[in-house]
Design a protein that fits this description.
Length: 87
């Protein structure tokens, strides 16, 4: 039995990724997102630094084609050593 999803695919799906405000963080995340969503345009990535400047919040909106794709992308992002939180 296939797992049901509340989402209708394909759809635009925003991912919020937070990590330390370190050199190469945004580039590394953009490359990782492109592995799982090859049509992702990294120039659309939104970036926001924390008030103290220690953390960087990224929003990557991907064109999701399946729940499996989103699950794989979420697992890859949470396993990345620079990532603290993925929403």
């Amino acid at each position: 039995m296939e797992k049901q999803s509340l989402l209708e695919f394909p759809c635009d799906f925003p991912l919020k990724i937070m990590g330390a405000n370190a050199e190469g963080f945004a580039q590394s995340i953009a490359e990782l997102v492109c592995v799982h969503a090859p049509d992702y345009d990294a120039t659309t990535m939104e970036m926001r630094t924390s008030k103290a400047g220690n953390y960087l919040a990224l929003t990557c909106t991907v064109r999701a084609t399946s729940q499996a794709q989103l699950d794989d992308l979420y697992r890859a992002l949470t396993a990345h050593p620079m990532v603290k939180v993925v929403l």
